[in-house]
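Problem: given the chain below (360 residues), write out its structure.
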Amino acid sequence: MGMTITEKILAAHSGLNKVEPGQLINARVDIALGNDITAPIAIKEFKKAGAAKVFDRDKVVLVPDHFAPNKDIQSAEQCKMLREFAREQDLTHYYETGEMGVEHALLPEQGVVLPGDLVIGADSHTCLYRAMEICGETIEDMGMAGRMTIANMVIEAGAKNGIIAPDKITEEYVKSRAKRGYKFFQSDPDAKYVDVREYDCANIEPQVAFPHLPENTKGLSEAVSLNVSIDQAVIGSCTNGRLEDLRVAANVLKGQKVHKYVRLLVIPATQWIYRQAMKEGLFDIFLDAGAAISTPTCGPCLGGHMGILAKGERAIATTNRNFVGRMGHPESEVYLSNPAVAAASAVLGRIASPDELKAA
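Solution.
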């Protein structure tokens, strides 16, 4: 019996010829990742255990992206702990606010995370077990931004590992970024899967996730018909804060004005994306429309800062979760959509389709 991509990666990092589900293995990781929420917990345990040095200064990565720039004294203390530990351990990959980005977008962009790597990340969107491998014609024609969005979201579908087979598109993205060697793995034709599901993506219209679960979706046409008013729109996050996403939003917003009583927040996922969006004139479009542009941060996605909802408020967001209280008050609501729908909704003040702006 052959192996899947995930099994091959785990085997390669365990010094084994083959691994299978249920097997206990001892695997060496390429990257151990922490952010300003999770790393302080790890640092405290590290010191409590009496450890003096990390196993490899090049493989421990710290990204203060959740509450940074610091929103209050407590978050400042959290970020300070990362900074001091990074200095103490002389870590290669510590990203201060001016270099920081949303970790899941930043590390592939910087060539720190590469194909074939085994990464353990202290963040729930760094997916690690029960693999979901996605393939097909739609994926083959999809750019890296879309593929990374899917990989980020598989955790909401019950998987903990989102795998897409590397190809020419992957190679083109990685070759100029990689800071070390990498290896492409492919699943064997006779690899065993728990389940195989097939979808005709041509027959799936854009979806909107209604409160309070990402899987509580409705087709865009139905969502529009319900006339759901909004108070805030957020375009950004690990799922939809890449340059391609900002281009999509700008295309919808060009020549439009954000609704008088709606707050539109645009949050590029990394500093490189921020600079490139500025160079391309996307910021002019956002500002002319009445949007606010933020430095990279996870902020509003987890209800941290930069866009907290008050009681009874509704937001449409390109983020990844819409649990009760996820973006603020427990009696607020979050609806999840793609960047085009979020942008159109910001203009019309309700969940809307971009086609409605074209028809106006």
